[in-house]
Design brief:
The chain has about 250 residues and is of the alpha+beta class. It contains eight helices and eleven strands. It folds into two domains: about 120 residues, Uncharacterised protein PF11572, DUF3234 (Trna Endonuclease, Chain: A, domain 1); about 100 residues, Alpha-Beta Plaits (2-Layer Sandwich), CATH 3.30.70. The strands form three sheets. Strands 7, 8, 9, 10 and 11 form a five-stranded mixed sheet that branches. Strands 2-3-5-6 form a four-stranded mixed sheet. Helix 2 packs antiparallel against helix 7.
């Protein structure tokens, strides 16, 4: 059984654990069979403006998108050579057209169907709205440091997401309190990359946001700062130890 199989099984026994299954699905790399079969076997990154042509099945008027959490499962379904793309679940949620039914791991003992209403629920619950820069009045007191309390499971979820992204060099989790009326402390995640371009940074931000949403309550907020040279980022990286850091290359 894969981690998704186990999470699905737990959710079927206890509906309270459905959120854990959804969160794991959105962070997992998913294999999608496509019509295009590459001429040369190998791997490459999909260009930002490249159109993906997934295989869509039809059944009694329903259009079905097939998803697999293992390449072996996709190959066992196909029985012939197929092309495929690999996308994190949260990218599938953002990019696939509305009206489709998704079937995860079709043909296995752990198949799971996502109906359109369920997919809409995931979009409402797990997609993070774009943050807007708030104007802070001059001479406002801002306190920056280590979090007083980290929500259970947040650090593990963020660390796992960082480990999946080879462009991330270090990550620090801090806390910011802006001393204006009605404000409460909020978390800030400062991430340094090895010079990732904007497309890669956008993908990293989406994955880290999804990871955070699985552990945060609805009213809890986290600010993501990637490769920013702001005073806030510099204070957090200086005062708060990194919870994730790529190993330094061994000396010759």
């Amino acid at each position: 059984m894969t981690p998704l199989d186990k999470a699905l099984q737990a959710a079927m026994k206890d509906g309270v654990k459905a959120g854990q299954f959804y969160g794991l699905f959105l962070q997992t790399d998913i294999f999608i069979p496509t019509h295009e079969v590459p001429e040369v076997e190998g791997e490459r990154h999909v260009d930002d403006d490249e159109v993906i042509n997934p295989i869509i099945l039809e059944n009694e008027g329903d259009k079905i998108l097939l998803l697999f959490d293992q390449l072996e499962r996709l190959q066992n379904f196909a029985h012939r050579e197929l092309g495929y793309v690999v996308l994190p679940g949260h990218v599938i949620l953002d990019s696939m057209p509305e009206g489709l039914r998704w079937v995860l791991n079709h043909g296995t003992d752990h198949a799971k169907e996502f109906v359109p209403e369920e997919i809409e629920y995931l979009k409402r619950e797990f997609q993070q709205p774009r943050s807007e820069q708030a104007e802070v009045p001059e001479d406002t007191k801002i306190m920056i440091g280590a979090p007083a309390k980290v929500p259970e499971g947040l650090m593990a979820a963020l660390k796992e997401a960082c480990q999946r992204n080879g462009d991330i060099v270090a990550a620090h989790l801090g806390q910011i309190f802006i001393g204006t009326e009605g404000e409460v402390p909020h978390l800030a995640l400062v991430v340094s990359t090895n010079g990732a371009n904007n497309v890669v940074k956008t993908a990293i931000m989406a994955e880290l946001t999804t990871a955070a949403r699985t552990a945060l309550g609805k009213d809890e907020q986290i600010e993501l700062l990637i490769d920013q040279q702001s005073e806030i980022s510099q204070v957090i990286t200086r005062e708060v130890a990194a919870f994730y850091q790529t190993p330094s290359p061994a000396a010759d």
